[in-house]
Amino acid sequence: MYNYRPFYSFLIFFFLCLGIQLTGHSQAGFKLPLGKIKDRITFNLVNNLVIIPVEVNGKELSFLLDTGVNYTLLFSLYDNDSLEIKNVTPVKIRGLGEGGDIDALKSINNQFIVGKAIDKNHTVYVIYDRNINFSPRMGVNIHGVIGYEFFRDFVVKTDYDSEILTIYDPKFYKPKRCRSCETFNILFSNHKPFIRNKITSFNKEYEVTLLIDSGASDALWLFKEDYGIRNDPKNYFNDFLGLGLSGGVHGKRSKIDVVSIGSFSFTNVNVAYPDSLALRNLRLNDIRSGTLGGDILKRFTVIMDYGSKKMTLRKNSYFNRPFHYNMAGIVVEHDGIIPIKDVTDRSDHSFRIGQNNRSSTVVSIYVNPLFTFFLAPRFVVAEVRDGSPAHLAGVLKGDELLSINGKPFYEYKLQEIYELFSSKSGRKIVLRINRNGVKFKKRFVLKEVL
Fold first, then answer.
1. Which of 18, 67, 111, 166 has its Cα between 20 and 30 A from that of 220?
2. Which domains are present in the chain?
3. Region for residue 139 given its phi and psi (left: phi exceeds 0; alpha: psi -120 to 50; beta: otherwise)
């Protein structure tokens, strides 16, 4: 038994791109209690990603539900957290990014509980590198990633509208008739699901095979720039695409004319092309053309049936929303906790008469102003895109955000900041920032990138 106490806390991007290769095969499995054939689990939808509660050896944690990984990963615990993991063996793993192999611990015979589903012999790979931590850029704690071994044992319905996950015992699952649904055959390679679909660029149609990756928040990744990149006129911009297990991922961002999945079609879709340096750690199979990510998947209710090798889609309220890039050009992340003194003006003096726990009369007198003290996450600028509105306005990496459009930073969730920066071309943004103790404002206007 190993007492795991990592030394880091927060960190992640608006999307994850893990693509992990590991060896070995777990014989464990999730099961529902006897007599129960389905269960419903509430999840949080953050940056197009599904975050579910998972209990690991009695410890309540938060995991990303990811069809793009074939083994369970654990990371990003707080300094004061302690989690017992069992029967550990040192291993090395690799993932998407510009770095190399990563040291990890393979642990077997762990108890995982998701909703009412229990696996008493779950294998998990523990990543103890303090630099690998996917929480700050998500704005919520992410302690791990769970994928294939969960989807393998159930039929899983993800309702992105209601943020409800429904799991069914495959032995008793019967698909309901649905006129607005469409069911697709899916392929498997290394325990990962793939789908064949079509994309159209510059009036030319291509058939592609894409990894179905609910752990990637972008809409689409393609590995060949022939699918849509042009230099005359230039239809892309270079960008930091995100953070993978093996380091940062850089590449190009562009738009693709049409993405078709059966009878469903999307136009003017965001697409990213990771550079070859980021892909070198992946053993890409011959069939894979890229990734179908969360910004498309969230536009459906998705039913994954690994046993039958089927995926069923039904449009939801997100379906017709346009695809926008971050029009500010900055990425914001949590960076620790800071004390806040909030001042509330009262229109007049007042008092209240009550009793304390000793039944003595207490008079509370409220005066103007009223001060409230609390702790709040600190927001800092983590990335600035060259040539973006924020860059041209003079915003720098490391700047601390104090307010956005007059609203104190602590009244925002990180997700709300991303939504604001991707909301509407022409919207005015005023940032009040702190740079090395000097406070000032930066103004810019959101602008479509492409």
1. 166
2. 2-168 (2.40.70.10), 181-315 (2.40.70.10), 330-445 (2.30.42.10)
3. left
